[in-house]
Amino acid sequence: MNLYETHCHTSESSACASASGDTQARFYKSRGYHGIVVTDHFLNANTTAPWELPWEKRVDILFSGFESAKRTGDEIGLTVLVGWEYTVGGTDFLTYGPDKQWLLKHPEVMELHPNDYFDLVHKEGGFISHAHPFREDWYIDMIRLFPRKCDGVEVINSNRKDFENDMAKKYADSYGLIYTAGSDNHHANQARLSGIRTEEDIRDIRGFIDVLKSGKYSIFDRVYEEAPDNGKA
Question: Is 156 helix (H, G, I), strand (E, B) or coil?
Fold first, then answer.
């Protein structure tokens, strides 16, 4: 079975991450993963891209961590795909499907109402999974749910409490939404990892979306006996 990470960050693009794209790729290879989806924080969230830069430069920064991970992935035999984590007032949505060229053509996404953003992504054939929907933190003023606009729900997030993940599963079950699972890995040193497991060899983001929609996968959550040394082991 092939293991795929659905939610991880890089220091090139996410201000809260310490692991580079190169480090993340080597980390996941060392843990037996077949592939990862790099989902750095979007340009309306905790990004390293300064707001005052031109749109094209900001998009370049958003994709820089993915591009670093992909270069390494191509060298070591790890499939590296790209998405991003779009934010609405502290509520996060993993976005899969649209690529860099699409984003360059749509700078208006920064001004759209969330419902309109979701519709635009779906028009492109994209997939939206609500990341850690019941996360609580000091900067989150409320729990926001968009059950009619999301395709899936992250029912396992390796960095969240079991209670929050259990609530996410109840939410997904109540609305018939697709399960996703991800590690939300920022530092390439955590022992608990999750993702999806599939017999299919996923080679591109469309294939990834097709697997999620087909249901031909399982989610997993595991704790390794010890955390590796930033993927260099």
Answer: strand
Q: 56-60: long-range contacts (C-beta < 8 A, 24 or more apart)?
A: 56/104, 59/100, 59/103, 59/104
Which residues of the chain have a pLDDT value below 70?
Answer: 225-233
Position 225 scores a pLDDT of 67
Q: What is d(CA 46, CA 31) in angstroms, rounded to the nearest whole number? A: 27
Task: Look up the CATH number of the domain holding residue 211.
Answer: 3.20.20.140
146 domain residue, yes or no: yes
Evaluate whether 68 touches 22 at the Cβ level (below 8 Å): yes
State how far the alpha carbon of 161 is from the alpha carbons of 30, 80, 101, in Å. Answer: 26, 28, 37
The pLDDT value recorded for residue 203 is 96
Cross-strand pairs, 179: 153
Give 191's Cβ-side CA count (13 Å radius). 5
78 within domain boundaries: yes
| Maximal CA-CA distance, the chain | 46
Residue 231 lies in a domain: no
**Full-model pTM:** 0.95
Nearest one of 112, 63, 61 to 87, comparing CA atoms: 112
Phi first, then psi: give them for residue 170, nearest 5 degrees: -60, -40
User: Is residue 187 helix, strand or coil?
Assistant: coil
CA-closest candidate to residue 212, choices 103, 126, 139, 134: 126
- Our count of domains for the chain comes to 1
Residue 34 structural domain: 2-223
